[in-house]
Design brief:
By secondary structure, the protein is an all-alpha fold. It has a two-stranded antiparallel ribbon. The longest helix is centred in the last third of the chain and has 32 residues. It is a multi-pass membrane protein. This is Ammonium transporter.
């Protein structure tokens, strides 16, 4: 069997990255190099225990997403769809260790505006191969836990962001080109956006005052708009009418996502405190409200109550409350889930999205859910001048400006990356392979006996 050149190059790249670890000299005394590190006695054991738990919870969300997506696609594409989510745990982890974390939380690179300095991205060389990232806390970013623990927690967010995108172009993308795209997305879209929102001097967080408690903007909007760009570049499937293969997979995946989302949102408090408890409460309540709203809204529109609808509604609620989880009350979170479910439901059934073939409605659920969460956060977030209802007219205006900028950056940035990827390695599988199904044509595996898959 002739081995394609692109696979040889891929193997060479991973070999270089892994072998170079043997020769990489890790600095032993980071406190003497970077003054931003604290001392070991500033670590709070309770916070460490909670953040370790949260890391595990967020990690399980990616396999949960694999089941969620895998159950929705046709029977010939279950394994390929699940693998596209699952493989992110390998690809993005190494990117994060080598350069991603540096670009997200490294020494800021930006501009001076008046008396303030506002950064766009971190210096890629700051924490290369996790240099200086160890047991000491960071004075500004992670004050009571080891900086390594913070880096690992943030890594799980970076992992799931490109995994979310996969649902949009499921059943028609070539695996090797997909791997290239998620590398480019992680480096050029996710890491800079993460820095701009969450780094202390990040331009979206410090200049525009964007409030994103746990990733509504950073994760869900970026993935949602990248998904929209992807389906426009790749085009429609040959057969866009399929029956979900395994609804129990979808139910299992939803349960894993809901379970893991507690760490996603409540863990973003970075401490074992009351804010974490409130984020837990708002997250669960918003999801419950959205799930019920979705199925009732389906029913009054002539559609039957379905397990699939309940699951999608629950996830939309989780997405919508993410940016506001630690900023609003539990009763307010019900409204977040309610209104986001209605808006997303309307978008899911719109003729436009059906026309461009977003396979699993990623933009309608994650993109629109993230947009709704960002808007609602700017309206309801508690605190003096923190939102529109609390005297923060300027905050609301800045949020809307930032929303527009993020939408443009993530959509057109991803569109360019898709085009570049497609130029290097064509992203669409052949018509023959699409008919056969990606499980067999890309991976030589099938969930069912071959005669059933055919």
């Amino acid at each position: 069997m002739k081995i394609e050149k692109r696979w040889i190059i891929s193997f060479v790249v991973i070999s270089i990255v892994c072998i170079s670890g043997l020769f990489w000299e890790v600095p032993l005394e980071p406190e003497n190099v970077h003054s931003q590190f604290g001392t070991i006695d500033q670590i709070v054991p309770a916070d460490v225990a909670w953040m370790l738990t949260s890391c595990c919870l967020v990690l399980i969300m990616t396999p949960g997403l694999a089941f969620f997506y895998g159950g929705m696609v046709g029977k010939k594409n279950v394994i390929s769809t699940m693998l596209q989510s699952f493989i992110c745990m390998g690809v993005v982890t190494l990117i994060w260790v080598v350069v991603g974390f540096s670009m997200a939380f490294g020494e800021p690179l930006g501009i001076q505006i008046g008396d303030g300095f506002y950064s766009f991205v971190g210096d890629p060389s700051t924490f290369t191969f996790m240099d200086y990232v160890g047991v000491l806390p960071h004075k500004e970013i992670a004050k009571t836990v080891p900086f390594m623990l913070f880096a690992l927690f943030q890594m799980k967010f970076a992992v799931i962001a490109p995994a979310i995108i996969t649902g949009s172009f499921a059943e028609r993308v070539r695996f090797i080109s997909y791997l290239l795209f998620i590398c480019l997305f992680s480096i050029f879209i996710y890491s800079p956006l993460c820095h701009a929102v969450w780094y202390p001097t990040g331009i979206l967080g410090s200049f525009f005052g964007v409030k994103d408690f746990a990733g509504g903007t950073v994760v869900h909007m970026s993935a949602g708009f990248a998904a929209l760009a992807g389906v426009i570049v790749l085009g429609k499937r040959k057969n866009s009418n399929h029956v979900p293969t395994n609804i129990p997979f979808v139910l299992l995946g939803t349960g894993m996502l809901w379970f893991g989302w507690i760490g996603f949102n409540a863990g973003s408090s970075m401490e074992a405190n009351g804010v974490a408890a409130m984020a837990f409460g708002t997250t669960t309540t918003a999801s419950a409200a959205a799930m019920l709203t979705w199925i009732f809204f389906d029913r009054i529109n002539g559609r039957k109550v379905s397990a699939l609808g309940a699951c999608i509604g629950a996830v939309v609620g989780l997405v919508s409350i993410t940016p506001a989880a630690g900023f609003v009350s539990v009763p307010e979170s019900m409204f977040f889930g309610f209104i986001a479910a209605i808006v997303s439901n309307v978008v899911v059934y719109s003729k436009y999205l059906k026309g461009i073939d977003d396979t699993l409605d990623v933009f309608a659920c994650h993109g629109v859910g993230g947009i709704m969460g960002m808007i609602l956060t700017a309206i309801f977030a508690h605190g003096e001048d923190a939102s529109l209802l609390h005297g923060g007219w300027g905050v609301f205006g800045h949020h809307m400006t930032a929303l527009l900028l993020v939408s443009i950056y993530t959509f057109f940035g991803a569109y360019i990356l898709f085009k570049i990827t497609n130029k290097i390695i064509p992203m669409r599988v052949s018509e023959e392979n699409e008919i056969i199904g990606l499980d067999l044509s890309q991976h030589d595996e099938t969930l069912f006996p071959i005669e059933c898959a055919e």
